[in-house]
C-alpha cells in the first residue's frame, strides 16, 4: 500500500480538482491510502471528506511557505506519507521545502498550466526542483513550458488528462427545455468558468458573426460561473444575439448537457488540457476550438474530430461552427472519431496507471 497525500491550494470545482478527485477514487479502489491537503475549502474537500478520505488544511502562500513546509513535514512524518503529489507551483515549493524537515516522501508535481514563468520563478525552480521525484505535464506544450521554466528535461514526463470512456453515448434532449433551447435548434455548448483565459467574450463575438451567417436557429449554452459572468451577460445582450447565447451557471450535471448538445466549443486563450473537451469527445461531440497546441492535439491529431481556429478570429470561428452545422458527412465523421480517440488515447484507467508508475 502506498500512502499518497494530494496537495492543492483551492479544493474547488475546476479541472485540477477533477484530476485529484479521479486519482483519489481510482487509487483508493486499488487499495492505496489517499489523503488530501488543501488551503481553501470547496467542493472537492467537501466531497472527499464526506466519502471518508482523511484531509488536512494547510495555509499556502508566499509569506507562509517556510512555516507551512514545517507543518507539512510534521504531518507526513506522523502519517508515514510515501508520496506528496503537488498540483501547482506554489504547492510544489512547499512540498520540496518540507523535505528539509522530513525527507522520506517522494514529491511528484503535476503542471496544469502552460504559462511561461518570470525570472524569479525560474530561479526558484532551478534551485528546488532537482529534488522533485518527477514532474508530470498533462500535454506536450506543458512539458516544453516546464523545461523553459527551469525544470530538468529528464524529470518531466507527459501523462495527459483522461476520462472514463463509459457506455456508448445516447442522445438525451430532456435538459434542453430547462436550458432554454428550443426544439430543432442546433445546440452549441461549452463548460467553462467565466474568467479571462476562457475567452468567453471572444466566443460571444463569434456567435454574433454566426448569427449573421445563417438563418438556421441555434443556441450557445455557456455552463459555468465566475467573476466575469455579469460582464459577459451584458455583452451577450447586444441586439441580434440576445436570445442566442444562454448562461446556465455552474452545472453539476455536465454529462446531461453534453448528451443534449450538437457541438462543443472551446474558446480559451490559454489552456493545458481541458477536461471539458475530453468529456465532450466521450459524448461523441465534434469540436471547434482555439488553435492552442493542446486544443489542436485533441481536435486535429489523427483521428481528427474537430476544427481549430486562431484565438481572436471570430469570423473564422463562426465559419468553422457553420461548416459543422451544414456538412453532415464531416459532422458524423468527427463525431465517431471523437469517441474513438477517447477510447484509444485518453482512457482514464490507463493514464491513472501511468501516474502511479511515476510515483515508483
TrEMBL record:
Any Pfam family the entry gives: Glycos_transf_1
Keyword check for RNA-binding: no
GO molecular function: glycosyltransferase activity
Domain Glycosyltransferase subfamily 4-like N-terminal: 14-165
Domain Glycosyl transferase family: 176-340
Database matches in SUPFAM superfamilies: UDP-Glycosyltransferase/glycogen phosphorylase
UniProtKB keywords: Glycosyltransferase, Transferase
Protein name (database record): Glycosyltransferase
